[in-house]
Amino acid sequence: MAHIFIIDDSPTDVRVFTTLLEKAGHRVSSAASAEEGIVGVKREHPDLVIMDVIMPGMNGFQATRDLSRDAGTGHIPILIVTTKTMETDRVWGLRQGAKDFLTKPVDAKALLQRIDTLLPG
Questions:
Q1: Beta carbons of 17 and 28 less than 8 angstroms apart
Q2: Model's pTM, two decimal places?
Q3: Type and span of the H or E element at 92
């Protein structure tokens, strides 16, 4: 069982991901903004972060960069899950420190497989 932190401003997406992840045996925390998410991740030190990109205020690329470059959270894998579908968005997300990138809507099986691949040992 892993602790997964979701940073997404869509209550619907958070509910869908939380239900899926809890059924798979994971513990889930969430935040509705990038700023709140950074604080939560630094406080809770989850095993993995699911990051949306398009959010008011700070976007997910900026939050990914902040978390991946912080000494206390840089080891936590970040999986970007977004409606942004351009290859340049995927490349940019990975350059900011994300370990993987999926586009919404996400297939549940694919999401769980990616998470299992990214979780530490």
A1: yes
A2: 0.97
A3: helix 87-95
